[in-house]
Amino acid sequence: MTYQHEVALSFAGEQREYVQAVVDELKKLRIEPFYDNDYGVELWGKSHLTELPSRYRNSAMVVMFISKDYVAKAWPKHEASFILHELLDRTHEYLLPVRFDDAELEGLDPSIHYQDANKVAPGTLASAIESKLVAMGLRPRKIAAKGQIVSYNLLPRLQGGTVTLPPLEQTRDPKRVRELLGPYVQLADDLVVIARETGAHVPMPLELNDETRVWVRVLRRMLEGGVPPWPIATFERSLVLTASAVPTEGALFVRIQTSNIMVGEHAVALPPFGIYHPHVRFTDPSPELDTFGRPTGRHTLTAAPVDGTPLVAYIAAEGARTSTPWDLEGITEPPELALPE
User: Fold this and answer.
1) What is the spatial distance between Cα 72 and Cα 75, in angstroms, rounded to a whole number?
2) 205 and 99 in one domain?
3) How far is the C-alpha of 313 from the C-alpha of 221, rounded, in Å?
4) CA–CA separation, 227 vs 319, rounded Å?
5) Which candidate in 66, 94, 117, 233 could, as Cys together with 336 as Cys, close a disulfide (CB 3.0–4.6 Å)?
């Protein structure tokens, strides 16, 4: 769906100084929010009773700055009433509350997580808004080393097996033939693109299984400039850590330099690529032991997305948008990956 505004801001005038600072930071990120001061001429002569609801309806998300002033004044209460009504029809995180105090807003679910304006700087809040837009697929992935940076060289290996071609002689129903051959045709198309983009000739794998099909489709999406979800829900890395070096949460930016991926017995050499997520939580690192049960001095660090959205992979992220490999015949989303709406 195409929205008139990526994000709209609803607030009371008493908090304008903070909101203006957030707007300035958003503009540095090339995000133009719906902010009343920027639309004074466009709104001139129009009724707020009809125009403001239309703006909020045509925004991908609304940041609501809640305060005692907000819940007491007529116009913010009117805006809040419409925003909360619109929230009922949305399937994603449409309402993003920011609180200045403990004022209660009638109709707002108290379980909805909020940001504390007294603790979160305007620049930090603007970056969080950007991350939400990226997770929704409304903004291109702008990969930056924000937070913990790790390196990683071990990539999945796709194993081969024995293929059994479908018994086409047993059916002459075109629909059934398509169901039987569809996955083979899709995989062949993907391998043609991989060969064209990398110069690696990869014959059809000996085993046609769902794992192989998904990974090959991910490689194709990356080579075509897309930013597909990484089909592994968490990211693990073995490294030497000190207590002060252990992160708790933040952005994950993995730069993979060694990038030969095996499809069956055939190597596909990719350019250096990245794996990214704007907000992951790092588990306590577990010490690695040698074959005699002695500590090796290395630890396994695991990062998992906080919001359940997947890690993404990319080669050229500039201008690329998220894409999904799960549009293959007979393939459904893995339950461990909750793709953004």
Assistant:
1) 9
2) no
3) 9
4) 10
5) 233
pLDDT of residue 143: 36
Alpha carbons 111 and 333: distance in angstroms, whole number: 28
Answer whether residue 322 is part of any domain: no
d(CA 214, CA 211): 5
More confident residue, 333 or 235: 235
Q: How far apart, in whole angstroms, are the C-alpha atoms of residue 145 and residue 8?
A: 27
Average pLDDT, the chain: 75
Q: Tokens for 221? A: 């999406």
- Does 114 share its domain with 178? no
Look at 277 and 25; give whichever has higher pLDDT: 25
Which phi and psi (to 5°) does residue 243 adopt? Answer: -60, -40
Q: How confident is the model at residue 43 (pLDDT cuts 50, 70, 90)?
A: confident
99-105, long-range: CB < 8 A, 24+ apart: 99/66, 99/67, 100/15, 100/18, 100/65, 100/66, 100/67, 100/68, 101/67, 101/68, 103/66, 103/67, 103/68, 103/70, 103/71, 104/71, 105/66, 105/70, 105/71, 105/80
Cβ atoms within 10 A of the Cβ of 297, count? 10
The verdict on 153 and 117 lying in the same domain is: no
Say yes or no: 221 and 130 in one domain: no
- 42: tokens are 């466009």
